[in-house]
Amino acid sequence: MNWTTSIILNFISCYILLSVIIHVCIAAISIIKTKYYYNKNSFTDYNTLVSSSNAPNISVITVAYNQTDIILNNVKQLLSTHYNNLEIIIINNSNSDNVLKELIDTYNLQPVNVFIDSKIPTEKIKTIYKSKNPIYKKIIVVDKPKTNKADCLNTGINIASSKYITHINSNCILEQDAILKLLQPFLEETTQKIIATGGIIQTKADTTSTPQTFLKKVINNTLVLKHSKTLLLEYMGGTKLNELLFSSGLFMVFDKKTAIESGGYTSEKTGEDIELIMRMRRYMQQNKTPYKVVFIPENLCCKKEEPNIKNLISKQSSWIFKLLESFNSHKKIFFNRAYGSLGLFNYPYWLFFKFLVPFFKGVIFTYLIAISLLGQVSWELVFNLFILLYSLKIIHSFIAILTEIIIQDQHHNNYSISKKIATAILEPFVLNPISIISFFKGSFQYIKRK
Amino acid sequence: MYLLNLLFFLSLYFSAILLVTMVFFSYANKRKKNRYLSWDKETNHLINEYLFAEKNRVIELSENVKELSKTKPFRDFIAKKIIIAVKTFSGETTRNLKKLYLLLKLNEDTLYNSKHVFWYLKARAIRNAGIMKLDNFHDIIFENTNHKNDLIRIESQIALIRLIGFDGLKFLNIITYPISEWYQIVLLKELKVLDPDHFKGIKFWLKSYNKSVIIFALKLIGSFHLFDFYTDTQKLLQHKNKKVRLQAIQSISKIFKETTATELFAIFDKEPIENKTAILKEISKFKDPNTIEPLLKLLHSENPSLKTKIAKTIITVDKNGIALLEKQSGANAHPLNTIISQLKEETNS
């Protein structure tokens, strides 16, 4: 083994060790915080807020595209939500008039003149509709010429009359207590300003459209496991360290005032929520105001998707694209002392230990195979390194399963435990190649667009 | 290379240990669930017997229950069941359940847990003492009303109210930690179910150095319509903290007098937008025609967003508000013309 190979291998070892230490710390904090959350939650009666006259208002913004049935179901479901102080703002961004027509017919809407104080600049609005029927007074429908999603959401923020805002995709189904759970941290905090709260959007397998093959079942199980890992071993730790920066798949509630002051959603970027949260953080940091982004370790929202490799790659590569946009537009804070922990810890952590992981994996695998083919290192060493990386991944999954059994006090029969263990063993073979391919696909798309 | 080898062996051993632990805990959980299932039937029967027992009837515990009650898991299980039943029912039935609680000596567990180092066990014990109205816990509960752990603190505050009613609010004299908005809502809900009583100490709480105590006292004034505290509330409209002023605005409107609107207009200019909005909301509830003139004056001076709110207040106070707005200078120009046509449509619909 020459000295260059030795240095590179030592560098790889140090990176793995550092990554293990960081992930162990975050997982430990996460487990403690999750346990704390469940204990605390056993004392909470969310109905207190439902029945209180002091309950805050919240505006739910949803953007309607061409799928009429989906948006109608979405509105129906929002109307039946277990919270009264709700305002539902639907921004029609579809090509055809069908969605609008259906909404008008279903909810007895009529055009109204509304004065909008456009604190965030947006494209012009065609018409605003409200219902003649007082039962549907919560609904506001905004018809806009076809524009981007960020512009639609900013229009929603300008129209929203509540102190808190949230944005929900029309294919998401909210849990009954979701809004109450997300509002609670805003009302509970006394020392810091809560700028946003978020809970997980769970992806469920859509079993209705196509038959379930073995591969689909495996993919679905690995996704469920990945979801548990994020929920139990990452996000709660992230909340404690205030490092939830570019978290994916979150259903979030924002403080409207902070969202407006930080400029709202950005039309040039595709990752709406991550971009907004990043800008809000920067704004708070620049103003030296203590703030917090709170994560709720529960599934508050779910959406159905067909679990197949093509869908997964497309979803993950689009996520990589959004992350690249965000990393690039906020590169100023990278190791910038002026942004405190955001610049010195959070941003580098996300860059080196989250975002670039598939890249490092791809490069390390290729490098190891290349040097072993060239005879610079033994096959045994390469094999051991693979086993090490593989067992680290399995350990992470096992800890998540164990946490689920102990903390969530879930009863698992022998079959479900065996299924989870088998999934943990298979997961690296299924998700690793997908994440590496998605990383390079997303990065190429980004470079191409630039 | 040494580091890699070390990590390699460690990870393999650790995976194996985790695997064994998972299987063990899964088995333990399964056993626990089965045990709970068998206890469930037994405890339900016992609780039902006590629930519907006549006043002076003594119900003996079965040998099985006596034997089981020697074990801690069963005691925790039955305590939880009794607490749920007490929360669900009221009156004589709960008194019988209290008898059962004492007969099983669960109060001793409550006492033990109320001094526990684990916060959630301590908080649960305090909550149980409040629900079961265990008077001898008064001192323990009171001393925890200013505990550094927020859950223990709030559970103690609620338990104190459950034990001694409105007098339980005496914790407001001593607390140094803020009461969050959420917990204020919880406390008000607890108080709402009690018969309104005299409020000793409100004057003192309104002068507290703890801002949240002032805000909570103001909420009490508003919620229970305590007209005697009008002057004190009025003074707080000048408080240096904007949140206190906001609550003072909301509370004074619930005990309003003829002069309240004038007092609110007097502070309007220097208030932040949130408080201005609150003032307009409260004024619209008064429906006092005398407020129209000052409102029309404000209409010319404020920003467009506030203009809409002022205009809405005018049409809420006066039926002919739209006509009044149309007579104003600038009624045909933006933004007032849009605001007026929006309000017209809203009124018509």
Describe the structure.
The complex is a heterodimer of chains A (450) and B (349). With 450 residues, chain A is of the alpha/beta class. Chain A folds into 2 domains: 1-43 and 190-450, no CATH class; 56-188, Spore Coat Polysaccharide Biosynthesis Protein SpsA, Chain A, CATH 3.90.550.10. Chain A has helices at 3-41, 47-51, 68-79, 98-107, 149-159, 178-188, 214-233, 235-240, 256-261, 272-286, 309-329, 340-355, 357-373, 379-406, 414-449, and strands spanning 58-64, 86-92, 109-112, 127-131, 139-143, 164-167, 173-174, 193-205, 250-255, 291-305. Chain A has a 10-stranded mixed β-sheet, with helices on both faces. In chain A, strand 1, helix 3 (68-79) and strand 2 form a beta-alpha-beta unit. In chain A, helix 3 (68-79) packs parallel to helix 4. The mean pLDDT of chain A is 85. Chain B has 349 residues and is mainly alpha-helical. Chain B has a domain at 272-349. Chain B has 19 helices and no strands. Chain B has helices at residues 2-51, 63-68, 72-88, 92-103, 106-113, 119-131, 138-143, 150-164, 181-192, 202-205, 211-223, 230-235, 242-252, 260-268, 273-286, 292-299, 304-317, 321-326, 336-348. In chain B, helix 1 packs across helix 3 (72-88), helix 15 packs parallel to helix 17 and helix 16 (292-299) runs antiparallel to helix 17. The mean pLDDT of chain B is 86. The interface between A and B is large, with 55 and 54 residues.
Condensed summary:
With 450 residues, chain A is an alpha/beta fold. Chain A is built from 15 helices and ten strands. The mean pLDDT of chain A is 85.
Please name the defining characteristics of this protein.
heterodimer, A: about 450 residues, alpha/beta, Spore Coat Polysaccharide Biosynthesis Protein SpsA, Chain A, 2 domains, ten-stranded mixed sheet, about 55% helix, globular, B: about 350 residues, mainly alpha, 19 helices, about 0% strand, elongated
